[in-house]
């Protein structure tokens, strides 16, 4: 399965927000940190607001912030909410073409099982799990000062 860019950007936006100590930023801040298109991120922010993951404030002092603590934002729930379709093969799509072997095919059941396993793994994690290394993430995103790693040390 491949997640859409919308879901990918939604995860990145939430990671950025959870990494900031003040928790407030603008879509431009996120776009600059990740070098992503602002217009796409505006749509993502609107989706996240509509789903209750972020709060938005208009005006000069406006911006976006998490609507709940990172530990209350499940990764699986976010992926389910932002993905439009989970069809791993054309035969699983509502508008897909019929398959000649569909009545006797076992693959469809296997793909459903694989998708359930994929989502079950994501259900075990929250945004808090993703940002446990908040300081290091922040340094890569231009939040806070740079973090100096020991030689040979991986940031994760």
From TrEMBL:
Keywords: DNA-binding. It comes from the Bacteria. GO terms for molecular function: DNA binding; DNA-binding transcription factor activity. The keyword Acetylation does not apply. Pfam families: Rrf2 (PF02082). One of its GO terms (cellular component) is cytosol. PANTHER family: HTH-TYPE TRANSCRIPTIONAL REPRESSOR NSRR, WINGED HELIX-TURN-HELIX TRANSCRIPTIONAL REGULATOR, RRF2 FAMILY. NCBIfam families: rrf2_super. This is Rrf2 family transcriptional regulator. It comes from Rhizobium terricola.
